[in-house]
Amino acid sequence: MAMRGPRRTRLSICAGSTLSLALLLTPSSARADEPDAVPGSAPEPTVPATAPVTVPAPEPSRPRDLRGERSLRSDVERIVSAEETLGWFLDAVAIKNVYPSLLRSVCATPPEVRRSVLAQLDAESRSAGVAKDLFIASGRRWTDASKRALRSERLVVALRTANEGAEADCPFWVTPEVGFRSLQTDEEQFTLSFESDGLAFVRAARGDFTYGGGGAARVLPGYGFRGHFSVRGGVELGGAALIDPVRNDASIAVRFFPAVPVIVAYRDGLWRYELESAAVGTWQGNIDSFQLGFRSGANVAISGLRTQGILPWVGIGLAYEHYFAMADGPPQNFLRAGFRVGAIWAP
To answer: Judging by DSSP bridges, how do beta strands 310-323 and 291-303 pair with one another?
Structure first.
């Protein structure tokens, strides 16, 4: 019993010395940071005070590309209309025909634009109903409702086919762009139009009538507004050979017709309906007989799909011109009608 007491005292002293030495060797900052540490427990990880804690900002949502959607939809509608004009009979054959033209527009638009336009067309098709059911319900006769439904279905299947094939078939050099401009219309674009006329003339002056034929050419810068309207205006020069049926000498009078026309056009699919006005002039023989006047007219045209950057079209026109009495020339009235061809280039 007497010997065990000193041994316990020596152990306590050694343990106390060891604890004191450990406390001396431990940095004071560490002891201050962990006053409540439990002996034997692992220290909790800490973040250095100098390390910034950043929270990633949410990615901003991209606004809808409304111009791209309008342009793509216009192109799909015109391409399908062109195929229907040629005679859409079998869906598989028609889709194969329009596929290259569709891809020219689809490949140039971002995927979200393609999906948005397809969703719009699909919603409209569902609202229009099923063309086959409407056709049968009307006694197997075409009605406005069944025609609208069939056209809606064709638009959907055409764009869906192009969207599905875009990833594999789009050429590598075509880059989708925000704000895609229509390839098949002049909507929201500056254009340059080259036009040529083949005309028949009837002239009335001082109670006499002469008739003949001629032509004209003109260059017209223009702009296509959002929606269906466009305007163009420029310069024109034409000429005609006129014959007086009353005179016996069968003489031919050659007249020249400069003009500054302005045309307002309404686009409806492939068709264009135009109203025209112009400041006009005419002279015969020499410039001393020059007279001024005005023109009012109308044109109807049908246009094709874009080829090598050009939108071709062909139409017919009818116009009335009045020339005021000037110098020795009497008042004159002309009626002109004929065919017109043109090409619209969007730089």
So the answer is: antiparallel
